[in-house]
Amino acid sequence: MKKMFALLIALMTALTLMIPMFASAEEPAEPYATMWVNCADGKRLNVRTEPKTGSKILYRLDCGTCVCIDSGVAAPKGWAYVTTSGHTSGGFVMTKFLQNRKPGKYEITERDDGFRAVTPYIVSAKALNDKTMDSVGLRTIPNKTAKMIRRLSAGDFLQVIAVGKTWSQVIDLATGMTGYVANDYMIRM
After folding, report:
1. Closest listed residue to residue 113, CA positions, set 133, 149, 142
2. I need a surface site. Which of 98, 112, 137, 160 has the fewest CB within 10 A?
3. 87 φ, ψ (degrees, to nearest 5)
4. CB 116 within 8 Å of CB 150
5. Are strands 178-182 and 167-172 parallel, antiparallel or unpaired?
């Protein structure tokens, strides 16, 4: 009887120690992450059948679209399997076009191919509002969160050398520095 009681105590102790293992097995890690599409303004992200650029395009997603990344589907580096509302099937996208939060109007980064060279012309920086002479920042890349080269004042002259849908590449005539300015804050001379 003592042997049976000792065996029962040992079994109960072993089961008690195993409870945390069973609990963690019941709560798997969340395999999904929410991200947002951020491709060049005016362009759409291709969702493909396979994680390679030559594969069939299932559909395209607009910039700012929320997607759910399914980490349970294997994908090579630089690719992710995504699903989104409005589409019955998921597909593969390039991860360089995804970010952790929804992009605002001037946070949409235009890639180099989003710009077209133009015959240079002069513009004037516009004031942010009627109460200040401060204008937009001259940025290192076309993104409102990018490092600012300098804060422009209303009336500062810039030479536009390339134009994108939301941003333009300019030369600051006061400093000779090249940077980017949001199109809404320039007036053509």
Report:
1. 142
2. 112
3. -130, 135
4. no
5. antiparallel
**For 152-167, how does the pLDDT look when each residue is reduced to its tens digit (9 = 90+)?**
988 899 999 999 888 8
- Sequence-distant (6+) residues with CB within 8 A of 61 are 37, 44, 45, 47, 67, 84, 93
**CA-CA distance, 166 to 115, in Å (whole number)?**
10
CA–CA distance, 189 with 34 (Å, rounded to integer): 44
Domains of the chain, CATH where assigned: 32-103 (2.30.30.40), 111-188 (2.30.30.40)
- Using DSSP's 3-state secondary structure scheme, residue 143 falls into coil
Whether the Cβ atoms of residue 103 and residue 63 lie closer than 8 Å to each other: yes
Quickly count: other Cβ atoms within 10 Å of residue 79's Cβ: 18
- To the question of pTM greater than 0.85 for the whole model, the response is no
Could you tell me the strand order of the sheet in which 91-94 lies? 57-62, 44-48, 91-94, 79-83, 66-70, 32-37, 98-99
pLDDT grade for 23, boundaries at 50, 70 and 90: very low
Report d(CA 183, CA 26) in Å as an integer: 53
Nearest to 152 by CA among 131, 122, 127, 169: 127
